[in-house]
Amino acid sequence: MILLSHSEDATLALGSLLAKHLSFGQVVTLHGDLGAGKTVFSRGVARGLGVTEPVTSPTFTVVQEYRLADHKMFFHLDMYRIDNEQAALAFGIEDFLFANDAITLVEWPERIPKLLPVPPVLPLRLEHADHDLRQITIPDELASKLHDTPLPDGITLLPLTQTSSQPE
Ligand SMILES: Nc1ncnc2c1ncn2[C@@H]1O[C@H](COP(=O)(O)OP(=O)(O)OP(=O)(O)O)[C@@H](O)[C@H]1O
Ligand SMILES: [Mg+2]
Question: Could you identify the atom of ligand 1 that is nearest to the CA of residue 108?
Answer without folding.
Answer: 25
